[in-house]
Amino acid sequence: MAPIYKVAVIQLHPKVPLQLEANYLKAAQFVQRAASLGAQLAVLPEYHLTNWVPEDPKFASLCDQWKVYLGKYRALAKECNICIVPGTIVERHQDAEKDEDKLINVAYFIDNKGEVLGSYQKKNLWHPERPHLTSSTHDPHTVIQTPLGPIGLLICWDLAFPEAFRELIAGGAKIIIIPTFWTLSDCSPYGLRLNPRAEALFLTSTLTSRTFENTCAVIFANAGGPKGKGQENSYAGLSRVTLPFVEPLGEETKDSNEEGMSVVDIDMEILEEAERNYKVREDMGREGWHYSYRHDGVLVREREKL
Asked: In the sheet where 149-153 sits, what is the strand order?
C-alpha cells in the first residue's frame, strides 16, 4: 500500500529584514507546532531569514552566518523528530576563479535525525537577483533519497522552467519541493494593468500544470504578509501542495497571502494512479524517446540500475 505523508507548508512573513535570529525563532515556533500536529516534514519559504534586501550594506555580511542557522535547523529537526527544508539560506563564499566573494541561494533537506541529506543551489535566477547571486548554471539537478522517498529541490523562479522538473522526474523524484519568495508586484506595469493578480494566475496555473505533466507532488512554500493585512501587502502567498486529479491542498494558505501554516496529507497512491493513467515516466524511460533533453544521461543511468 502506498504511504501517506503529512507535511507542513509554512507561509512565513519575514517581518524584520536582516533580523536573522528573530525570523528564525518565529520559524522554529511554526516547525514545533507542525511536529506537534504529526507532520513528518516542514517547509519554509525562500529568504525567510533575511527577506530580499540585497542592496542593504549589511545583507552580504549577514550571509556569513549561514552555517550557524543551518546548524540551528539541524538541531531543531532532531529535537522535534521532523524533516525540515528551511526555505533557502543565502551563503557568502570566496569565488576562487574571480578572487572575490559570491552569494549563493541554497535549499537543504534535513532529515528527522538532523542530518543533511542533500542541497540545491538556485539555478534560474530572477532578473533582479542576477547582479547579486551566483547561479549553479550547468550543475545537474539531483534527486535526494529521504524518509519521504525520492525528492527534488527547486527554488522560486525555477518553477517557470519545465526542464528542471523533467530532469528531476527522469532521476525518479516523486515529490518536488519549492521554497519561494514571489510577490504580486513581480509583474510588469503592463501586466498589472491587465490583471492586478497576474502573478497569482501564473502561480496557480503553473503549479497545477507541473503536477499533472510530471505525475508528481509539488510542495510550494511562499512568503506571506502580516496577519490581518492581506489586502495591503504585495506578497503572493498561495502556499499549497498540488497533486494530480485533486484540487490544491492547504486550507489555511492556498488562497491567502497572509502568514500561516497548512498541514496536509500527501497520498502517494494518487501519484501511482496518475502515472498508470498518463504514463509520463514510462514514456520518458522508453528506448528512443523522441525528446533529447540534458537529462538523457540520467535516464541511461536509471535503466542501467534495472
From this structure: 144-146, 149-153, 175-180, 217-222, 240-242
Q: Tell me the torsion sign for CA atoms 147, 153, 155, 160.
A: negative
Neighbours of 64 (CB within 10 A): 12
Amino acid identity, position 245: F
Q: What is the pTM of this model?
A: 0.93
Select from 274, 291, 299 the least CA-distant residue to 170: 299
Q: Which residues contact 124 (CB under 8 A, 6 or more apart)?
A: 135, 157, 158, 160, 161, 164
Q: What is the pLDDT of residues 211-236, one digit of tens each?
A: 999 999 999 999 999 876 656 679 99
Q: Answer yes or no: are the C-beta atoms of 294 and 167 closer than 8 Å.
A: yes
Grid cell of 253 as nine digits: 494558505
Alpha helices in the chain (DSSP H): 20-36, 59-62, 66-80, 162-170, 189-194, 198-213, 268-278, 280-285, 296-305
Rounded CA-CA distance 267/140 in Å is: 28
